[in-house]
């Protein structure tokens, strides 16, 4: 039977109402690629009586019978037939291969027919995005992005970073999704934007497009360092202004509303003085958005100087009256006194006056020695100052250590001591005549009988201008010195030796 005649074709056409599921419902493939028409028949070793493959019901692809295989001239070298399942492989596809494919299979006197559709698509390529602008201002600018690509049956998807862009009040997708328009852009619209294009057989993605969205300034913040609002004259102060802005903001500084010459995000006040007290603020300006923002003012109070304690005299003397005055610049609400780290408890000889500003010692004594600390405070600051008080007294309890008797030619050593602040200066007298000054020790080698007498040590305090004395009464220089005694002993020994020698000589003569 020649199946190229009309009857064979009609047989195939009529048979399409049977054999449902013999071929897949539909196939997609790309130009130049391969399509596989796989039947649902189980592989068999027994050859089919006949297999007819046709395209669009009128063009024969291949006819297989027991005696021969006939391939349509357009399909030579492009197909491979699989006799065990009657499947067909189709290569080097073109757009013209899109259409209906049918197969009629005769086996054991039965005919099975099937059909399916093959659609050929061009692959996606040359995906690119163009933008109407890339330099925009937040809330006042709009941008349009257009996506183009080569291929067939294309669909478009926009991505902002890794998130899909969907239509909203501000976002419009037109021209089948290939155009993206954003109205009143925000900083979150900066991208990167990509256009993903797909077809049934392939996908492609554009290079990223970034938008520069200028915004701000906003959320301005002024930081004072150190953070307290009061400072002593000579302090160093730093004010730092931060703000959200793109591009980075420009800064101006103001004191009590008057613009300062300083610019930049940091204002440094070095070695401050009282005239620099006031309310400081910073203003940020964005040259792209033409917007500005001013911070809340930060109050700075510069005190004239730190607290100080001034004594009525720098050299207090025991028994006299002394006052300590706590001074400070600015408003002082409280003053508290401490001594040696503990709260001061006034004694009978102390008086606090002028709202604790003045501490008076009616008659100061050495027990009042110590560190006095005056702490001042007001609603915004506190400070303090100390004064170490040393009470001068003496001299008193003058004493002399040394012998009352010494042999002639011996060495005389007398030591004088006294209780005194500051340390006393000493002068020595022998029988009322000054013999030594500015020394606590009196030393005399090889004393003579004339060194006997009354030795007086006079102690003098140059601050209290007081003196006190001690006397060694009647120190006596006596006897013979050690050398003298030694000479006498030697002389006696010589005389004795001579006497013994002379007697022995007379004895020998007899």
TrEMBL record:
Q: Does the keyword GTP-binding apply?
A: no
> Highest taxon of the source?
Eukaryota
Query: Which residues does the UniProt record annotate as the domain Ig-like?
Result: 125-212, 217-295, 297-392, 395-473
Q: Name the InterPro entries for this protein.
A: Ig-like_dom, Ig-like_dom_sf, Ig-like_fold, Ig_sub, Ig_sub2, Ig_V-set, IgSF_CEA-related
Listed transmembrane segments: 474-507
Q: Where is the signal peptide?
A: 1-19
CDD domains referenced in this protein's UniProt entry, alphabetically: Ig
Q: What are the record keywords, sorted?
A: Disulfide bond, Glycoprotein, Immunoglobulin domain, Membrane, Signal, Transmembrane, Transmembrane helix
A matching Pfam family: V-set
Instruction: From the Swiss-Prot or TrEMBL record, give the protein name.
Output: Ig-like domain-containing protein
